[in-house]
Design brief:
The chain is built from 7 helices and 7 strands. By secondary structure, it is an alpha/beta fold.
């Protein structure tokens, strides 16, 4: 476990797990959304591919994402381990909801200084709606990738319950 991707749907706890594993293994942790969104108005990083290529050329790292389309294959090609948080909607939707309420109420600054807003809850791209609508799609994408012969050498640990993930983390 030197180059790790933590994958799953929105609200699964990818960032939390990646941060914890990174600390325990003393490896650099990169939050994909922070790399992707670089400024106000949810501005997108024009140099994302180059930046991710540079970060993942290092011998050790952990990233909390299946990857945005422009860097997805790059991440999967360079990873050696996949930690898959394969939780059902009854786990991820309440998590995404609580996180978004907290961020909206506290006006927490996230990703390039952006903030979640009450008006944003009406968007189909809001994290809660995204977690709901993309749950099956994201799960299928990860399933397809873990079965893809290109990625067969990856050590894939698939967790279907948070308590299994927590038990594994204590062993790291």
């Amino acid at each position: 476990m030197e180059r790790i991707l933590v994958v799953g749907v929105t609200g699964a706890g990818k960032s939390t797990l990646a941060r914890a594993v990174g600390e325990r293994l003393d490896m650099p942790y990169y939050e994909m959304d922070a790399l992707y969104f670089t400024g106000p108005g949810w501005a997108v990083n024009d140099t994302l591919t180059e930046e991710v290529a540079r970060l993942t050329s290092a011998p050790r790292w952990i990233v909390d994402s299946v990857g945005y389309p422009e860097v997805r294959d790059l991440l999967w090609d360079r990873a050696d381990t996949i930690l898959w948080l394969d939780y059902g909607k009854r786990v991820v939707i309440p998590r995404a909801f609580r996180r978004s309420v907290r961020r909206t109420v506290t006006r927490e600054s996230i990703f390039g200084g952006n903030r979640e807003t009450w008006a944003g809850w009406l968007s189909k791209e809001h994290p809660v709606w995204w977690a709901w609508s993309q749950h099956a799609v994201r799960r299928q994408e990860i399933e397809r990738r873990t079965r893809d012969p290109r990625f067969a050498p990856l050590d894939t640990l698939r967790f279907s319950r948070p308590r299994d993930t927590a038990a594994w983390l204590t062993s790291v």
